[in-house]
Amino acid sequence: MTRGNRGIIYFHFDPHDRVRDYVPRALASLRPHADHILVVSNSPISDADRARLEDTCDEVLERPNEGLDVGAYRAGLEHLGWDRLADFDEIILTNHTYYAPVRPWEDVLARAEDWRDISFWGMTEHDTMRPHPFLARRELPRHIQSHWIAVRRRLLTDPAFREYWEQMPRVASYRDSIQWHESRFTDYFNGLGHTCEVAFPVDRYSSDNPAIEEAPALLADGCPLLKRRAFFHDPLHQDRQAVVGGDLLTAAAQAGYDEDLILSDVVHTAAARDLIVNAGLTEVITDVNPEVGPKTAPEPVQAQSPAPEPSGCVVVHVPAGREGIERAEADRLPERLANLPAHWRMVVTSPAPLDTADLERVTGRRAKADDAEPGEGGEPGVAFRTVRDLDPRGTIAFLTECDDLWDPERVQDAGAEGADGVDGAGGVDLVLAINAGPLSGSAGRADDVARRQVLDCLLASPGYVTGLIGLFTRHPSLGVVMPSDCHIGQPHGGPQWDGLAGAAEALSRRLGLTAALDPIAPATPVGAMFLARPEALRTLSEGAKELVRLTEQAAAGPEQAVERLRRARAAEVLERLTVYAAMSSGFHPREVLTPAWAGRLYGSLTYKQRAVTVDLPDYADEQVRFLQARFGPRAGLGPRVRSYVDVRHPEVAGALKPAYRYVTDGGRDVADGVKGAARSFSGHLRHRWSLRPGSDS
Description:
Elements: E1 6-12, H1 22-30, E2 36-41, H2 47-54, E3 59-62, H3 68-80, H4 82-85, E4 90-95, E5 98-99, H5 105-113, E6 120-126, E7 143-144, E8 148-152, H6 153-156, H7 159-166, H8 174-191, E9 196-200, H9 210-213, H10 215-220, E10 226-227, H11 235-240, H12 247-254, H13 259-266, H14 272-278, E11 282-284, E12 312-317, H15 322-330, H16 333-337, E13 345-350, H17 356-363, E14 382-386, H18 395-400, H19 403-406, H20 408-414, E15 430-435, H21 445-459, H22 462-474, E16 478-483, H23 501-511, E17 530-532, H24 534-554, H25 558-567, H26 570-576, H27 578-584, E18 588-593, H28 595-613, H29 620-631, H30 637-648, H31 650-665, H32 670-684
Helix pairs in contact: 15-17, 24-25, 24-27, 29-30, 30-31, 31-32
């Protein structure tokens, strides 16, 4: 086949009714290779987004979210018209579930043009799975994955193609889509005598689903697509398949695709901890010591001025009472703060007034004189601001009473100088939140260890701080950097929302956050200490102001309002939403460690993991199922028996799954379930079988 007349039907859906930036980029890259591009959107499209789409396609068809991707493809085919389809040499059915082009389209499309005697072709495929992972069937057949199926004229003009779509059963779920389309299409038309090819056949790889489990290998082989699901898939499954978090981003970046374009999109889909693991967003920062060129080196004729250093503001909160000042001294906070760039503004907040000596004990800087000019006397002084005593770590005050210090938009609204005389003009590029209050973890020695780790991982040395700031310079979509959790001496049992999951979910809905909350353990800055981009905190700041305002309206007086906020643990809820609010604004988080703490925590965690799992099944996903069957909310005899059979007799478990699914989920034909179980039982006793989830549509 030569280039011919090619059409593309591109299915789009976004649960938040947005067109993310990666979609127009993918369409623009396909534009030179298609004569007609039709975008079918199952979600509403704003006028601005429609204009962006129309720059890269010929038509936009907006429809209700009925039938998922299958419904969209059918609607697109009907929109073009069955008679008109005969005019195309090829129609590509593709969708929004990948980033592209990570590799050039030309190589794959040129190779496909040499396949002259086929009826359809795909980009990737999923291998056979026995038994079927979702349904009461013996197997899920090997099939082309539905994110890219190119249909040639000989199939487009076959009446069976139209019949396939017009007689499509109702698709109302992910399983329906796999059952009635993705896993069916290839076998169905092969059975009618049509032949196909796959650009990257599964035989080249070692997994059933290389699009998810071996994405870097696909990219290395020239695949233009990187599946989005690889970044928000179950990390336990990825671990079982030996998928290394971070390889995906590295491979995409090495191929020339903007990794921040990926991260600014996937934050709206992935839970924070899943994303941190799958994308490898835990950074071990080493000291950065910029080398200065020799003094005798000649200057270039047209030397460009270096990029200005990011400006910053550090807000240090000291709780009321002398304990906070003593805690700051014990933490060697002045010595640590000296590692920050000298031009960064520093403000201390506290419910109780602090004198000049106290400020110097906390920060190592002298108090700023009222008539001092910026930069006068060398290092700038430290300013002080009195705030309300709403929580021991000063979280609410930081978000509601200090945003004029660090948020450029708030600075413009507030004017050049706050009511207390603290200069806030101009805003800053970054804000560092530090406090001398208690951490949210265990007391005593465990608290001391955690505080030391947090402060080391934010303020270890001047070179280390330079490395942290460099992360923001290199990654425009980076919103929050926080130290990794300290687990030494800390409790680990049970859900770690600490009873605040319901309140966090309610406030998340009220703020309109799009990021999914982690179901077990939230990604939270330990002790409310972090380095952030002000824009990433704006949504949380506005939410905190509304929360305080509503509480004050409902309370009889200021004291009652404070009591209500404390009783509701409002500050803790806001702290737990810090990362999710940033993600909802399109900013991704990263965890950071010094090399020393990375070694300490890894060694301790490895020992504990081995001690805890010594009597459990081999792999983490099996261990989770094993424990949930005994101690989870749905624990019982049935789950225990099933988990025992899964672990100790996997071949029997695999054989019985079709019948089990028929009993639990219902099936069309009990005989098929029993026969499938019998066939599996006889065929699988010879080798060990391990469960893998179904393909990704």
